[in-house]
């Protein structure tokens, strides 16, 4: 999605944080066609939410018209946010839905963070926790209001202004880690191999430094080179106004950061080739960022992160345009000091020790789980043995009584409570009555006794 100039005035979301790939087989236009704009990312953790809100707002004709005519002050002071009340109902409904989805996503992030830190919270106060996110109103989690738009714009503006500094810091840490790993690798070698490897590394470093002169970004020499090699035009006919319009690829009247960075491709090709072992593509992106910052510092007079035609033409009238200082590439001097590297290595050691402690804790917990598993298995075996013994005793008892043991469909023993059938009681009752009657009969006279007269 390509953002309109109104948004770019403040957010500069188009490419200040995007990379423009080097294309050694063709022009910049082909490279742009290979990289869809939808895949670009601002680097903000709420990037998708930001883009979806802008995309929905631009479907409303009234808001889109206001956006086209808005200036930086209109956006900063919240005047544009008030236009939200006039957008159509279906747009508001879609914005409400986007906000609820974002709140749900943030809740999941909070839960994952709490789970990772083993924080026990039976009753999580989401409203309080959501206050740490500044790009939306945490007190209203269901509808998208003017305050949400104002917070989204102001937060994105602030975060993007700090983004370049964060990228520089990230690159510095990358370079320090690379140097740390290089030193650790050399320590692991014996003296002969270490000397040979140090020599090889030094040769690669020198080979990287042997590159053509890099023109200062925004200078007449640099722009003429683009005019001739990229645009295929006669360098003697170089015209700044024509150059501006040629490279304003979306024809919005300004050069945004993506369009500016595309101008540096030829200069970067002089220093970096992804096929060469000695060329680091991370360094190339840092160099691209430095070039863009250089132009913005000298050309973007109103600091809106865009270069207008007027600003561009005025920059061509300055002395620096024709006689710039020689451009120093990153290989001219390190981006960190030895003291910074030492602090970084201490930090790495501390993190490594912490990881070891966590690994040991996990190992102990795993051993404990194994022991508990063994105990449960032993209890299971004891239970099974007890069942077998009980079954055997029942078989023996039934065998002694002359009765076959009850069996299930698979031959297993069945335990049944001992019961008396009703017919047994009925059969027993007549026998008892008969015995009682016999006891009550008179005794018969003895046989063959003498008779008395």
UniProtKB/TrEMBL annotation:
Recorded family membership: Belongs to the nucleobindin family.
Comp. bias (Pro residues): 443-453
Biased composition (Basic and acidic residues): 189-206, 418-436
Function: Major calcium-binding protein of the Golgi which may have a role in calcium homeostasis. Acts as a non-receptor guanine nucleotide exchange factor which binds to and activates alpha subunits of guanine nucleotide-binding proteins (G proteins).
Protein name, per record: Nucleobindin-1
Gene Ontology MF annotations: calcium ion binding; DNA binding; guanyl-nucleotide exchange factor activity
Subcellular location(s) of the protein: Cytoplasm; Golgi apparatus, cis-Golgi network membrane; Secreted
Every EF-hand domain range: 235-270, 287-322
Major localization listed first in the record, in broad terms: cytoplasm
């Amino acid at each position: 999605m390509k953002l309109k100039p109104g948004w770019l005035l403040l957010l500069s979301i188009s490419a200040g944080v995007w990379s423009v790939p080097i294309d050694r087989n063709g022009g910049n236009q082909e490279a742009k066609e290979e990289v869809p704009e939808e895949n670009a990312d601002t680097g903000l953790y709420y990037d998708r939410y930001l883009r979806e809100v802008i995309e929905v707002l631009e479907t409303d004709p009234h808001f889109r018209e206001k956006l086209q005519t808005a200036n930086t002050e209109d956006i900063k002071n919240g005047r544009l946010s008030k236009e939200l009340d006039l957008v159509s109902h279906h747009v508001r409904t879609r914005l409400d839905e986007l906000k609820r989805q974002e709140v749900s996503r943030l809740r999941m992030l909070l839960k994952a963070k709490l789970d990772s830190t083993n924080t026990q919270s039976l009753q999580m106060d989401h409203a309080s926790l959501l206050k740490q996110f500044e790009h939306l109103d945490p007190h209203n989690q269901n509808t998208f209001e003017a305050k949400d738009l104002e917070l989204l714009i102001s937060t994105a503006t602030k975060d993007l202004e700090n983004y370049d500094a964060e990228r520089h810091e990230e690159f510095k840490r990358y370079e320090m880690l690379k140097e740390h790993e290089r030193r650790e690798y050399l320590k692991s070698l014996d003296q002969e191999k270490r000397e040979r490897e140090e020599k090889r590394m030094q040769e690669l470093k020198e080979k990287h430094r042997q590159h053509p002169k890099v023109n200062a970004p925004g200078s007449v020499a640099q722009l003429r080179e683009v005019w001739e090699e990229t645009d295929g035009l006669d360098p003697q006919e170089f015209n700044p106004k024509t150059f501006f319009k040629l490279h304003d690829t979306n024809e919005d009247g300004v050069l945004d950061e993506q369009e500016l960075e595309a101008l540096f491709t030829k200069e970067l090709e002089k220093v970096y080739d992804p096929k060469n072992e000695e060329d680091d593509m991370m360094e190339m992106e840092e160099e691209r960022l430095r070039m863009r910052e250089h132009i913005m510092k000298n050309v973007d007079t109103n600091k809106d992160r865009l270069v207008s035609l007027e600003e561009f033409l005025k920059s061509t009238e300055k002395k620096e345009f024709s006689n710039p200082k020689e451009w120093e590439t990153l290989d001219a001097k390190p981006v960190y000091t030895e003291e910074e590297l030492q602090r970084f290595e201490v930090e790495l050691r501390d993190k490594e020790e912490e990881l070891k402690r966590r690994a040991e804790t996990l190992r102990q917990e795993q051993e404990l789980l194994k022991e508990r598993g063994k105990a449960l298995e032993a209890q299971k075996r004891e239970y099974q043995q007890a069942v077998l013994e009980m079954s055997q005793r029942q078989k023996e008892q039934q065998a002694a009584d002359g009765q076959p043991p009850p069996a299930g469909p698979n031959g297993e023993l069945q335990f049944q409570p001992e019961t008396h059938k009703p017919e047994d009681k009925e059969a027993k009752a007549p026998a008892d009555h008969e015995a009682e009657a016999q006891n009550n009969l008179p005794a018969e006279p003895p046989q063959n006794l003498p008779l008395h007269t």
